[in-house]
Amino acid sequence: MNSHVPNSLIKKALSLPHPSPPNPFPTITSIANQVLQVKERERQNMMKGYTNPTFISNPIAAPLLLLLLTPFTTGLPLRSPSQPPQTTPTTTDFIKTSCSTTEYPILCVATLIAYASKIKTNPTELARTALSVSLDHARLASASMSRLSSSTMGALKPREAVALRDCMETLGDAVEELRSSLSEMDHLRGQNFGFRISDIQTWVSAALTNEDTCMDGFDEGVGGGGGGGERVEGGVKSVVRGEVVKVARLTSNALALINGLVSTTSPQ
């Protein structure tokens, strides 16, 4: 028997297309397609009453699929570290409800909501934070008054210079009173609670009075009493009012929240 194979048959066999061997390392696209197929089979099985899970047979695709699905199966939030922490509705509602008792509730919420994670639902911490915010703004206003006085030295009219000087003094007193109040808040506990809260109320009330007095020289004019001199008008008064009014409103809100602590049975 002749075993010789003609060259023409060999060339013809070599020219035929050959299927590529299967790739043992599937692509992400192929894995995704398998996921869709698995989900579809599971959906159909559930409709038929089957509960057995469907497995992926490829020994390399299965571990990769597990890695792809891990973020979705662990239930962990996919939030980047740069995003701010979210406040819980309970904390937010607590701040809004507490601020509703103040004279300027919108300002109260706007300035305290950033500290929600610290305040939580603690009324003492809420009042302490409000007082701290008021003190910070009072310091900034005092520094602004000082810069204004230095930059306008010799350019102000006598009545403006006197009003600005008086405002700086009273605002400085308010800063000291708010600082003393905030320091006392750190000791607001135990049997001396009533005594200490009374001191705090007195100091914050005095600070609020000084902040209001700051504008008297601008509203009444030099000579006082509302008729003994000309009113201060224009840019200086606008700048001072813009600084002092916000401080006075923040202090008013802080005082309202502090007054609310009087009914607290177990202060923190």
UniProtKB/TrEMBL annotation:
Main location as per UniProt: secreted
GO molecular function of the protein, one example? enzyme inhibitor activity
Question: What NCBIfam families does this protein map onto?
Answer: PME_inhib
Tell me its family: Belongs to the PMEI family.
Which parts of the sequence belong to the Pectinesterase inhibitor domain? 90-257
Cell location = Secreted, Extracellular space
Which superkingdom, per the lineage?
Eukaryota
Looking up Gene3D superfamilies in the UniProt record yields:
Invertase/pectin methylesterase inhibitor family protein
| The keyword Signal is annotated on this UniProt entry | yes
A Pfam family recorded for this sequence: PMEI
Name it: Pectinesterase inhibitor domain-containing protein
CC annotations in GO? extracellular region
Q: Which UniProt keywords apply?
A: Disulfide bond, Secreted, Signal
UniProt keyword Cytoplasm, yes or no: no
